[in-house]
Amino acid sequence: MNEGIVVTDIDKSFNDKLVLESINLTAKHHQILGLLGPSGSGKTTLVKMIMGMTNPDNGTITVLGNQMPNRKVLQSIGFMAQEDALYDSLSARENLRFFAELFQINSQKVENRINYVASIVNLVPDLNKLVSNFSGGMKRRLSLAISLIADPEILILDEPTVGIDPELRQQIWKELHKYRDEGKAIVITTHVMEDAAQCDQLVMIRDGRIISSGTPIEMERTYHVNNLEEVFLAAGRNNSNENSINH
Ligand SMILES: Nc1ncnc2c1ncn2[C@@H]1O[C@H](COP(=O)(O)OP(=O)(O)OP(=O)(O)O)[C@@H](O)[C@H]1O
Which of 39, 105, 121, 217 has its CA 20 to 30 A from that of 228? Predict the structure, then answer.
């Protein structure tokens, strides 16, 4: 089987400001990869490059063995962007139907599939409401449901748990672990340590550079600390020291 996502030697600048530097990572099937970093560290830019929405200055990205951008591969990716891309004047059900058609889901299976993905995010009672009446959290949940509608082989979720209450967050993680066990490759971005702890592999990003990577437990052992927040701080300190030695 092809590797899910392979990012090789990526650099990216905006207006001469380097926002990602020498990024290498692999997101494998049967694995949840967490991109953990503070606001502005470059996570969304990286995710957009994986989707082929932004071009890197250097380096390559392949998804399922195909170099991105590649329109055909998009059919195999469920993507949840940081900004909800929803039709406000349609109901949640109509939004889901629209995306089901885009992904060419068998019309006999569409309604079942809509009910299934809506149940994952507790939106079944709200399916016929207009999205313009939804709260921010409900919109996030609908965006997550849309990313799951086609049962994609790859899931890329940019801050999927923002605005979602703890109980539902747990339910969503249970579902993501199930998809992982079924063999999907899943990438999520987050700045929340509780979410990071649920991932199989973590890549910590600060100021556009990878400061550490590994499983959550490996990372805690490496830095002799008891939680990921301390790993992040320790890795950041090490990185700053290396930079000051190297430059
Ligand atoms: N289109 C753009 N033009 C210019 N600068 C940009 C553009 N997109 C992102 N940036 C800059 O790149 C840097 C990384 O932004 P990015 O959105 O990738 O970070 P992030 O880690 O996803 O942050 P957040 O968690 O707040 O979304 C920031 O300094 C941002 O201002």
Answer: 121
